[in-house]
């Protein structure tokens, strides 16, 4: 069961690892402007605003989350095939919107499936999710190595085996048999999302993803401008995920000694430091390596506590919709806004300015977290 749960995480994030570090460089080679690149990269996050809510609602209503995951995997792969027509800006925008609409439906649904299958052994979530990080590293390293030998315009072809892996692994997901389909209490979702601590939680994560806009859109371009080759760029991306894996392995120990609020404030502070270092000390390799190791805080720690936070506040009946809101309002809206804002900063100034913008977003996130974030009911109970 452990390997069947881990398999889809591996392939899903292998695609992300093959896409995020190199897609912006592919778009540069295609001749798109910085603002066009920012817009196209933002679609990866933009469809998270709508898609997870639609699919999460369908999953909660039907209980057929596994079938929806399989459908999203196959439909997303088919839509991505439009890239091979080499469309212009608007055509590629349409391809990416349709592809990511289905692709972004997979993860929130699968998070719910994983936590339900684990049941009382939720502390094992980090070890299951760790294989997504391993997949990301594999995607980054293999694609980066190949791109040292072949033109980056061949990138879409290199992604085909990864799409095949996602489709196959989706059909190995444990069956939803026995899943409870009791109707949710009416009106309770509104009460949950209007809770001050939940509002603070969403604002914190929204600003966190705004700050990541420069990273996911322009980090590779920023490094290339400072003389780094494609393989070193890929290795630096991978290094961040290696740190993330280490964090996943020890996170269950940290949650025993520190509260959600303490972990969040510490991680947000380290995230702010990370963006400043990338903006100003890019040429000093040891410092850049340290900045990438801080990915354990800026993504790993905050994601683990956020998944558990959603479960604690939204409970069993609204878990799917809570996970969808978390994905949509933070990774989706925050990521899209961050990508666009970073595009304007790069177009008007340079790539370093975009990372300074991310650091500024963290100042507000730290204040909101310190002032209003409170632990979910499950933590209160302990």
From TrEMBL:
UniProt entry tagged with the keyword Transmembrane helix: yes
Q: In what residue span(s) does the Major facilitator superfamily associated domain sit?
A: 2-355
- What keywords are assigned to this protein? Cell inner membrane, Cell membrane, Membrane, Transmembrane, Transmembrane helix, Transport
Its localization reads: Cell inner membrane
Which top-level group of life is the source organism from?
Answer: Bacteria
Bilayer topology = Multi-pass membrane protein
Transmembrane residues, as ranges? 7-28, 34-56, 68-85, 91-110, 130-147, 153-173, 193-211, 231-251, 258-278, 284-302, 323-341, 353-373
A single Gene Ontology MF term assigned here is: lactose binding
Name the Pfam families on file.
Answer: MFS_1_like
- Which NCBIfam families does the UniProt record give? mfs (NF037955)
What PANTHER family is this protein classified in? 3-PHENYLPROPIONIC ACID TRANSPORTER-RELATED, BLL5896 PROTEIN
Protein known as: MFS transporter, PPP family, 3-phenylpropionic acid transporter
Q: Which organism is it from?
A: Marinobacter daqiaonensis
């Amino acid at each position: 069961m452990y390997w069947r749960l881990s398999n889809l995480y591996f392939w899903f994030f292998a695609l992300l690892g093959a896409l995020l570090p190199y897609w912006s460089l592919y778009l540069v080679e295609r001749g798109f402007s910085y603002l066009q690149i920012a817009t196209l990269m933002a679609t990866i996050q933009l469809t998270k605003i709508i898609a997870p809510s639609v699919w999460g609602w369908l999953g909660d209503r039907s209980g057929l989350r596994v079938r929806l995951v399989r459908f999203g995997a196959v439909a997303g792969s088919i839509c991505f095939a439009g890239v091979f027509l080499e469309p212009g800006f608007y055509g590629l925008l349409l391809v990416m919107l349709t592809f990511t609409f289905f692709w972004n439906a997979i993860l929130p649904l699968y998070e719910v499936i994983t936590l339900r299958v684990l049941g009382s052994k939720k502390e094992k979530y980090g070890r299951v999710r760790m294989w997504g990080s391993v997949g990301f590293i594999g995607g980054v390293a293999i694609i980066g190595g190949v791109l040292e030998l072949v033109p980056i315009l061949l990138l879409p072809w290199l992604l085909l085996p990864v799409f095949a892996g996602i489709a196959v692994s989706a059909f190995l997901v444990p069956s939803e048999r026995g899943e409870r389909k009791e109707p949710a209490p009416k009106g309770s979702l509104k009460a949950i999302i209007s809770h001050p601590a939940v509002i603070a939680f969403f604002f914190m994560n929204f600003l966190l993803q705004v700050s990541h806009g420069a990273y996911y859109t322009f980090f590779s371009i920023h490094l290339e401008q400072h003389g780094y080759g494609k393989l070193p760029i890929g290795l630096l991306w991978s290094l961040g995920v290696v740190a993330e894996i280490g964090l996943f392995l020890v996170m269950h120990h940290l949650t025993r000694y520190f509260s959600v609020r303490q972990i969040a404030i510490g991680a947000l502070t380290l995230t702010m430091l990370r963006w400043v270092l990338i903006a100003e000390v890019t040429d000093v390799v040891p410092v850049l390596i340290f900045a990438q190791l801080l990915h354990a805080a800026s993504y790993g720690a905050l994601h683990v506590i956020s998944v558990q936070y959603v479960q604690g506040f939204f409970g069993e009946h609204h878990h799917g919709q809570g996970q969808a809101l978390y994905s949509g309002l933070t990774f989706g809206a925050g990521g899209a806004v961050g990508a666009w804002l970073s595009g304007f900063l790069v177009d008007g100034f340079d790539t370093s300015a975009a990372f300074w913008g991310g650091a500024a977003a963290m100042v507000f996130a730290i204040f909101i977290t310190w002032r209003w974030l409170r632990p979910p009911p499950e933590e209160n109970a302990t």
